[in-house]
Amino acid sequence: MPHKTAQECVSVTGREPLSQTIHGRSYTITANGPVLEPCAPHDVLSRLGDKWTTLVMSLLAIAPDNRLRFSQIKNGISGISQRMLTLTLRYLGRDGLLVRHYFAEVPPRVEYELSPMGKSMLPALEGFTTWIRSNWPAIEDSRRAFDARDR
User: Fold this and answer.
1) What is the pTM of this model?
2) Are residues 101 and 34 in the same domain?
3) Running DSSP on this structure, what letter comes out for residue 11?
4) For residue range 69-121, what is the model confidence (pLDDT) as tens digits?
5) Measured distance CA(66)–CA(5) in Å, rounded
6) Domain CATH for 103
């Protein structure tokens, strides 16, 4: 759906701003231009764009039954610290994207699994990572050109 121009969005009287959405986020066209509305899930968007979140979810997506132990996740993601993995798993669990299974054995065992909601996010994650792979050479070229201008 094409987006309306600022002139098309101004009300009949020309004074009241009109509300719209883009990618599910509300915005208002004002005389000074578009204004994004505050977004409650901003922290969720930040987390889902985090590299560790993307890697943890991707690793769980390819694991048998989408389920792994902490050490398997840590060994499967190069460079992640124990603290960062702990935080990432905690946040994913808090957001409902991950389920933590505790087994009262000796020694105790904990496994992490993508929840149904976490699994439902995999197509969006695939689209995002595919876009990055497709555009990465152009992004690198743009960065080099930008950095060369700043010198």
Assistant:
1) 0.71
2) no
3) -
4) 999 999 999 999 999 999 999 999 999 999 999 999 998 899 999 999 999 99
5) 45
6) 1.10.10.10
